[in-house]
Amino acid sequence: MPGMKIETISRTRCFGGTMGFYSHQSQVNNCMMRFSVFAPPAAEHGLVPVLTFLSGLTCTEENFMVKSGAQLVAAELGIMLVSPDTSPRGDGVADDPDGAYDFGLAAGFYLNATQPPWSQHYQMYDYVTTELQQVVFGNFPGDAERHGLTGHSMGGHGALTIGLRNPDIFNSVSAFAPICTTLHSPWGQKALTHYLGEDRSAWLPYDACDVARNVVDGALRSKILIDQGLDDTWLAEQLKPELFEAACAESGLPVEVRRHAGYDHGYYFISTFIEDHLRYHADLLGA
After folding, report:
1. Which residues are the active-site residues?
2. Per DSSP, what are the bridge partners of residue 18?
3. Could you state, in order of their start, the residue ranges of all structural domains in the chain?
4. Total Cβ atoms within 10 A of residue 97
5. 157-199 per-position pLDDT tens digit
6. Is the Cα torsion angle 251, 255, 260, 265 positive or negative in sign?
7. Which of 67, 70, 114, 188 places its Cα 20 to 30 Å from the Cα of 271?
């Protein structure tokens, strides 16, 4: 896969591997984009499987790498970790006019916006499925044939919709406290109205429940793993995992939703269960 030119922001040794933060000029988002890569020790000797993590609202390419504690187990398993920023950024990139956290900068929702002014920059679906692939596999020793996708909250929505729609790219999918239905989530309704317009039929490719309900032959058939805290403030109003379970039941898509008493929506929750997800992906990716 041809690589794209990248710039190194910082690199440091980490559990025998390398933790790096990078940037590049994005053609699809029409701005500079940042991303992070943890390359395990095994990457010094050949291609390794890759797990991409899509972060949630207010986050950047740093949150997962700094807060999850994933590198220790990833180093053991020989898995490369990748985490892109959550939206385009920079001068001229439109933001929520009221400065709200749930739309605009750091809230790209991993979709391709069709409505101005958002359509000029917010093309995160194409970024994750095309450009980020070129950046990662053209510059790092990752194996494009062994690639998993996971994410948290808004990024969990991205992992479910993108992973299920692109089984030729992603071999395994999981999520932490995902937004399971943008159609029935206030976060999703606000964002998709701005990004895609009032016609809700245009929203369906970015609603995890609709994607799961209408999954086609040849789509991902490995079991989807979801972890959800029961003390999550957003569970009832915004996340609705029960609707995703019902959609998967309709299509026969295997899913396991593990519910955990006492856990909330934050990174203490993610760090508690990240090892389970890494081992789940490692098994499916042949790590």
Report:
1. 153, 232, 265
2. 13, 39
3. 7-285
4. 8
5. 999 999 999 999 999 999 999 999 999 999 999 999 999 999 9
6. negative
7. 188
